[in-house]
Amino acid sequence: MPASERLGSHLKRAEQALSATKAAVLRPAGLTVAQYAALLHLSGNPGISAAALARLCGVTPPTMNTVLKNLQDRELIVRTPHEWHGNVLETRLTDEGRAVMVDADARAVRVERALAGEFTDEERDTLTALLARCVRVLEEQRPGPA
């Protein structure tokens, strides 16, 4: 099957284009896409653990720990021991982190709106449904643990 006919290639190119564009618009805010995703999810889930945040952001726990260390070094987040589970660190945005996230989110939303604006409401609904179907089929194809 030629590469031009492989849906996976088209999905990957679209994801790469979205990621590269978001990286470019987030650069002036001083964030990577992973850092932005972490701040965005933290804004809605204060106190979340690094492991749970990694799952939300679609990265490994070690990657998330690196992201969080960099954000903490910039004083955009604080990490404190959980009240009952001392080995679990709760992560929260600082005031500065919230301000940076708001600026970065406005930049990312412009990209999302430009993308959405290329489609009619019906096309967006169809695309969303088709992508959801892709996810379902791919998850069904994934082998279980060995």
How would you portray this structure in words?
With 146 residues, this protein is mostly helical. It is 66% helix and 7% strand. It has 6 helices and 2 strands; from the N terminus they run ααααββαα. Strands 1-2 form a two-stranded antiparallel ribbon. α3 crosses α4 (61-73). The longest helix is centred in the last third of the chain and has 22 residues, at 95-116. The two termini are 29 Å apart. Residues 4-136 form the HTH marR-type domain.
What radius of gyration results from the CA coordinates? 18 Å
Which regions are unreliable across 5 or more consecutive residues at pLDDT < 50? none
How far do the termini sit from each other?
29 Å
* DSSP helix fraction: 55-70%
Strand order in space, largest sheet: 1-2
Structural class: mainly alpha
User: Which geometry do the CA atoms define?
Assistant: globular
Give the CATH topology.
Answer: Arc Repressor Mutant, subunit A
* Structural domains: how many: 1
Q: What's the name of the CATH homologous superfamily?
A: Winged helix-like DNA-binding domain superfamily/Winged helix DNA-binding domain
Number of helices: 6
Question: How are helices and strands ordered from N to C?
Answer: HHHHEEHH
CATH class annotation: Mainly Alpha
Q: What CATH architecture do you see?
A: Orthogonal Bundle
Largest sheet: 2 strands, antiparallel
